[in-house]
Structure formats: structure tokens, C-alpha cells
Amino acid sequence: MKAGSRPAAPRGRTVTARRVAIDALIAVEQGARANVVVPELLTRSHLDGRDRNLVTELVYGACRMQRACDWLTDRYARGRLDAEVRAGLRVGAYQIGWTRIPPHAAVSATVEEVRGRGRTLVNAVLRRVTAEVEAGLVTWPDRATELSYPDWIVDRLTADLGPDRAQQAMITMNQPASATARPDGYIQDAASQMVAAHLTALGARRVLDVCAAPGGKATALAQPDNELVVAADLSLSRTRMVVANAGKVGATQVAAVVADGTDPPYRPGRFDLVMVDAPCSGLGVLRRRPDARWRIQAADVERLGGLQRDLLSSALTLVCPGGVLAYSVCTMTTTETAAIDTWLARNAPGLTPLPPPGPPWRPAGRGGLLLPQDEGTDGMFLLTLRVA
């Protein structure tokens, strides 16, 4: 099967939640993103609401707990496993270890959806895992496997947050993300809403969101008193998402443009507020991007830190005297949060820090850091600086 292709159920056979979940995990293993492939497959499945919810739980849960699921099953499954078997084992192991579904029912229903000769292997392995879990005999080899994170994420967050805070953050991010609707109906995590509310209170009339897609913060900043909100993004397809989302919530002040934030096509000093909601490692949003923990690499943190500094250097030239430069990221690494503030303090000493959001936000440099466990939200950092 080619990467990006979507498996289809055999003709004449009823599509089930577990079959859709297996298909989704196969696609994710081939490079698709869970938050993209799951809606696509659900649209074609015609499953009812209860089964659609089950698909989402199984796929997102199996992606989050992938390392733990693989450890449970790989001790009983020798040799190279094809994509169908691997996906079936992950769907089954997740149900056994992390849901209220009776294990034997979960195994039977999952095995029924595995195609080909691998069904026998999946059945045998899942039954052995069931026996071990029900007997309370699981002894994890290390904390990273038990929590199902790459070693480098555990090490990085432990070093940057401290052992207790890091562990609580990782435990929280293994829980399903809740959907939070704004008054205008836009679905956005509460942490992002807090950022937008904090910036809206500044009363800026001319606003630039340098990295705006999909448009959540830009549309939230579009208030009746705004003269203009420019929502820029480097990608044309993602800029179209901003246009669509602005239309849905009636944010008529938003002007979406395709532009490179490191080489902006705007007149210097044009905006009262320039927001750099920068590309980052995303380690604060692993609840809602369950497969991202397996894509991001340790080296990406330093690379993204460089991009963040480039974006801020360009953004600073666009803020008018007395205006505000805002920097936010949905991650918790020191490199992308407090270290960015230290760099700004050294390279742009004329900037005056504004008070960060209060509790539950925690001080981080001159900004504020919200950890996932603080309010059950995404992890987020916000820094606001006034230009002389």
C-alpha cells in the first residue's frame, strides 16, 4: 500500500469502529497525521455517534500509548510485523490496558477485524497480554515506556521542569483533550483562549499575527474596535484555513495573507500589536496531537529555537513606538520559552516587559508558563513586551 492511501473495507461487509481504527493506525504508520486521517475515515464510514467516539478514542489512545502498547505485545510477537498486525495489536493492547472495555470482549472484537493470516498471531498475543494485565503481573522496564514517551522528551521535560512537574505534565497529556467552544462557536483549547484574552485586553487597533494558521488567535483578536487584523502564514493552503475560519465566526476585520514571517512585506512600525505564535516543538499539545511525540526529534528543539529568534527579529521592526510584541508557543522547553526571553533581553534591551497572566500561569523568565496539569489545558508560554 502506498503512503497516504486509505484502506477500504471489503464489499458487503459492515464497517466497524475497530476496523476504522485499524485502518487509521495503518495510515498513521505510513506518515498520515491522526487528526487528519481520523476525520477523513469517519466521514466515509457512516458510523453512528457512539462508534465514531470509539474510533477517536482507540486511535488517539493507541497513538499516545504506542510505546507502552508495543512493549506489552512485542515480548510475545517475534519477527517483523506487517502494518495490519501491528495496528491490530496496538488497538487491542490499548483497550486491554487503558479502557473500561472488558478485555476478552475487546480481544474478540479486535481479532475479528484483522485481515489475513496475521489474525491468529494477533489473537494469541492479545490473549497473553490479557492474562498478564488481569493478573497484575505487568512490570514496566522504565518510566518512559510506562508513560509512553520517547526517552528524549522525558529527559528534556525533567531537566527543564523538574521531575515532579514533568511527570505530572506527561500524565496529563496522556488523557483525552477536551473540546472548548468560544462564545462565537470556534473550538479552541482554553490555554489559547487565555492568550487571546490577555492580548485583547491591550486594546490594539492594528494587529499582525505573523504565523496565524489555522486562525484561532487571529479571529479571537478581531474585536469591534479593531481597525485591522492581518493574519499571515507562509503556506497558501493554511492561509485558506484562516479565511474559512474567519468566515465561520464572522471575523470581518481579519485580512489573511500569504507571507514569510522572517521576511515580512509590511511597512516598519505599522502595527500596535505583533503576535509571533511561533512554530515550536509542540510538546504542550500532545493530548490533541497524539502521534506528534513520535515525529518530533530532539534536534528539532534547537532548530525551532533558531526560527523563533528569526521571526522575533523581523517582527520587532513592525511594532510602532508604544506598541507590543507578543510571543507565544505551545511547548514547555526552556530553549523555546525562558531562553528566548533571555535572548530578547540581551539583543533588544529597550523592550519593557508587561505583566504576564496571573495564576494558574507560572513565572518563566519575564513571561508566563501554563503547564497541562494546572488547568487541564495545553501547555503554553506567553511573553509580552512594550516597544519604546
Describe the structure.
By secondary structure, the chain is of the alpha/beta class. The protein has 2 domains: 17-143, N-utilizing Substance Protein B Homolog, Chain A, CATH 1.10.940; 190-386, 3-Layer(aba) Sandwich (Rossmann fold). Helix content is 48%, strand content 13%. It contains 17 helices and 9 strands. The protein has helices at residues 17-29, 34-45, 49-64, 66-74, 83-98, 103-111, 118-134, 143-147, 151-161, 163-172, 190-200, 216-221, 236-249, 292-295, 298-316, 338-347, 372-375; strands spanning 206-209, 228-233, 254-258, 271-277, 319-329, 352-353, 362-364, 367-370, 380-386. Strands 1, 2, 3, 4, 5, 6, 7, 8 and 9 form a 9-stranded mixed β-sheet that branches. Helix 12 (216-221) links the parallel strand 1 and strand 2. The longest helix has 19 residues, at 298-316. It is elongated, with a radius of gyration of 23 Å. The termini are far apart. The model is unreliable at 1-6 and 8-12 (pLDDT under 50).
